[in-house]
């Protein structure tokens, strides 16, 4: 085998994305890793300018031209490049000039290292830690509230028995009812208290139930678009709890859309995908189920985006701030996580649950 062919095979089998440019910054080569990362076909973009693969600002293009002239390599850290599918990629890249026989630069080699995944793993770890901290805080707070609350309620009942005056009984009844309301609020803060009744289930059955409930609640004002991946295997989980979690997320999108009077085409898209070799938190899973709930509403205020899953945090004046917190707790019980990205007219909640963990749990119970 010729040496040139060996080199080509080695580069083609690298996991690092490699792009080769000529002196005019036109594309000469991409390896398969670069095709996957940039979502392009190398056969279609050979000979075209760099922007056929990805877009950079004018300063960075000038830096590439300067590297051709000087022959000096450089590295750009934590930059965001635009892809042709309208998405953006957060990455590092290194530019290395390839020198010819006349000591002139013949081409540039660009090696791209995506940081999106590392950034997401870091954010997920922080989200999991913050949720655990808030859960412990709520548990302690609930204990401190429910103890005196029970005493207040009991005292009000004793008072109502001691007095025959109906007017006084009305006052004690108010105390009892408000005590019960606070107790119910604390119970909701704590999330699901029953042990999960896990069984094998089709996640699309869960989503269809959520879709039906959402259409009824919205009185047909919202269009729900389904985009399902039929290859997703059954998940082992609690159907009622999963319906509640997905419904809470979908209801959050529905309420935002119904309050947006300027939007005449209110839409929620629910998509499912099977992800392979995917990391949740710090653990890598062979197969993960992803449920995306995407709406074209006004978006979530940046001020609450990072604390969205905390109890009592809501972007709506009449909101309780419990729905998303409870949903996150349910998905955590299924070894998963809920993420959120929001821009104007595009808010996306992603529910991620490992499938093989659920299967292993099922086997343990057999």
From TrEMBL:
The Histidine kinase domain sits at: 140-357
| Top-level class of the enzyme under EC nomenclature | transferase
**Enzyme Commission code(s) on record:** 2.7.13.3
Q: Which PROSITE patterns match?
A: HIS_KIN
- Catalyzed reactions: ATP + protein L-histidine = ADP + protein N-phospho-L-histidine
Give GO MF terms, alphabetically.
ATP binding; phosphorelay sensor kinase activity
Task: Keyword check for Phosphoprotein, yes or no.
Answer: yes
Keyword check for Secreted, yes or no: no
Query: Which stretch is the leader sequence?
Result: none
Q: Which UniProt keywords apply?
A: ATP-binding, Kinase, Nitrogen fixation, Nucleotide-binding, Phosphoprotein, Transferase, Two-component regulatory system
Coiled coil located at which positions?
A: none
Q: Transmembrane stretches, by residue range?
A: none
- Protein task: Member of the two-component regulatory system NtrB/NtrC, which controls expression of the nitrogen-regulated (ntr) genes in response to nitrogen limitation. Under conditions of nitrogen limitation, NtrB autophosphorylates and transfers the phosphoryl group to NtrC. In the presence of nitrogen, acts as a phosphatase that dephosphorylates and inactivates NtrC.
Q: Quote the PANTHER family the UniProt record gives.
A: SENSOR HISTIDINE KINASE (PTHR43065), SENSORY HISTIDINE KINASE_PHOSPHATASE NTRB (PTHR43065:SF16)
Q: What is the recorded name of this protein?
A: Sensory histidine kinase/phosphatase NtrB
Organism whose genome encodes this protein: Marinomonas transparens
UniProt gene name: glnL
């Amino acid at each position: 085998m010729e040496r040139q062919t060996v080199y080509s095979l080695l580069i083609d089998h690298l996991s690092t994305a490699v792009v080769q440019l000529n002196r005019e910054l036109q594309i000469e080569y991409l390896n398969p890793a670069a095709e996957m990362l940039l979502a392009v076909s190398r056969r279609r973009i050979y000979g075209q300018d760099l922007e056929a693969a990805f877009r950079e600002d004018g300063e960075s293009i000038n830096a590439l031209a300067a590297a051709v002239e000087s022959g000096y390599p450089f590295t750009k850290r934590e930059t965001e490049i635009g892809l042709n599918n309208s998405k953006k990629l957060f990455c590092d890249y290194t530019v290395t000039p390839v020198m010819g026989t006349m000591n002139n630069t013949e081409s540039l080699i660009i090696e791209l290292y995506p940081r999106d995944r590392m950034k997401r793993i870091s954010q997920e770890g922080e989200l999991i830690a913050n949720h655990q901290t808030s859960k412990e805080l709520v548990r302690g707070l609930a204990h401190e509230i429910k103890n005196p609350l029970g005493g207040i309620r009991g005292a009000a009942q004793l008072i109502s028995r001691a007095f025959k005056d109906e007017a006084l009984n009305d006052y004690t009844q108010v105390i009892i009812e408000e005590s019960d309301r606070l107790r119910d609020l604390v119970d909701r803060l704590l999330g699901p208290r029953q042990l999960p009744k896990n069984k094998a289930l089709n996640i699309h059955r869960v989503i269809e139930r959520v879709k039906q409930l959402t259409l009824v609640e919205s009185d047909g004002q919202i269009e729900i678009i389904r985009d399902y991946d039929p290859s997703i295997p059954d998940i082992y989980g609690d159907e009622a709890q999963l319906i509640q979690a997905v419904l809470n997320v979908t209801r959050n999108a529905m309420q935002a859309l119904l309050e947006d009077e300027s939007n005449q085409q209110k839409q929620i898209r629910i998509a499912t995908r099977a992800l392979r070799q995917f990391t949740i938190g710090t653990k890598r899973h062979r197969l993960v189920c992803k449920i995306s709930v995407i709406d074209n509403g006004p978006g979530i205020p940046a001020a609450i985006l990072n604390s969205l899953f905390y109890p009592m945090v809501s972007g709506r004046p009449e909101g309780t701030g419990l729905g998303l917190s409870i949903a996150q707790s349910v998905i955590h019980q299924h070894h998963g996580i809920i993420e959120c990205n929001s821009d104007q007219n595009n808010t996306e909640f992603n529910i991620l649950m490992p499938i093989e963990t659920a299967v292993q749990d099922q086997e343990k119970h057999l």
